[in-house]
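Bit of a strange request maybe. I'm writing a small parser for structure token strings and I need a real example to test against, not something I typed by hand. Could someone generate the tokens for this chain?
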Amino acid sequence: MLLCLSSVTIVLISINRKSPVTLAFVADNHFLRWVEVNNMILGLCTVLLYHLISVQLISGSDKQLGSGRAGLHVMFIVGAYFYALSLGNHEISNYLHGSFCLSSPSQFCDIISFNDNIFSDFLFIIGFTLLNITVILTQSIFPSLRRMSLWDNVAVSLNAMFVATGIVANLAFEKSGFDSCVVAAMATFTLIMLRRAPEQLMLRYYSISYALGALVTAAIKLS
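Reply from user aminoacidic:
Good idea to test on real output. This should exercise your parser:
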């Protein structure tokens, strides 16, 4: 259920970015559009889902809680901080850049552009990667002994394809050198973790997500 909700969030983020309806202003002073506000709300939903998935993995494991849990909590908090920081920086600077700087560039607009296209992206990569690594390590440190059914494998694969589609949509059709390297590194990491514990559900989920996303992105860029 939590993975399905994550997939719904990915779909809503895509609709929010592409729909012309969300370009309306939130208030009369034009401080932000609905697309920026919705992205920040959906970002909160994303962090909450990561937390709930981690809690579910720990509670569903037969392993006793130990010192590893404290380290996972710290990693999650740091990841959530950088993820939130990136959204706050990107959504506002992206709005200002697109609304006031495309027709009249200046040094001030260069600063806004740097925050929009580079700095916020760097923060996002740190935060999003740490959140995902936290979930992967949680599954590894607190493994489940329950055997996965056919339905488990089908559900995991289908939801992982939504993540892979999101990776392709954001990387395959844009300049994304550093982002692609991070995705490739994460794909390698998840496949190594899956090889160590092939029966763990979330390791399969992340391996399909990153490996499929990286392969399709590479194929499109090379074609």
